[in-house]
Amino acid sequence: MRPLLLVLFSFLLATAPTAAQSQLAAALSDSGSSVPTGSAPAAAPLVYHTAEEMPGFPGGDAAFAKFLRAKINYPAAALNHGASGKVHVSFVVDEQGHILDPKVVKGLGYGLDEEALRLVRIMPWWNPGRIGGQPVKVAYTLPIVFRALE
């Protein structure tokens, strides 16, 4: 009998930025450097940790669940050891919705970390985060829950 596989997910929901977060974002975007204009060095693009509109999977939670059901390959080592739990993957969603630099920040082993990274790498482009209606780069952490049911 083949075990029933269940993969759950949850997005880390962010509330609307508070006044303190807005002030911090404004302070971060103002470099305050005294380099004369015209000779300013190329600055690294700003990556936000929260946005007025957070990035999201195209189609929302239901589409994300459908994507996971269709693409998941539960590792045999995880099944053999009865391993289950959350793998936290962090990445940046850029202004076009591309997923950049995914990495496991909290893993489980038994091949589940690699499977979570594979799933993130093959996801379609996301809807980008926005501040003031403009798309921005936003850091995001996605917990992917693996659970094998016998």
What does this structure look like?
With 150 residues, the protein is of the alpha+beta class. It has a single domain (4-12, 45-149), classed as Fusion Protein Consisting Of Minor Coat Protein, Glycine Rich Linker, Tola, And A His Tag, Chain: A, Domain 2 (2-Layer Sandwich). 27% of the residues lie in helices and 29% in strands. Strands 1, 2, 3, 4, 5 and 6 form a six-stranded mixed beta sheet that branches. The chain is elongated, with a radius of gyration of 19 Å.
Tell me the number of structural domains: 1
Distance between the termini: 9 Å
The ordered string of helix (H) and strand (E) elements is EHEHHEEHEE
How many strands, what sense, and barrel or not for the largest sheet?
6 strands, mixed
Strand content: 25-35%
Q: Overall mean pLDDT score?
A: 78
Structural class of the secondary elements? alpha+beta
CATH topology: Fusion Protein Consisting Of Minor Coat Protein, Glycine Rich Linker, Tola, And A His Tag, Chain: A, Domain 2
The CATH class is identified as Alpha Beta
CATH architecture: 2-Layer Sandwich
Number of helices: 4
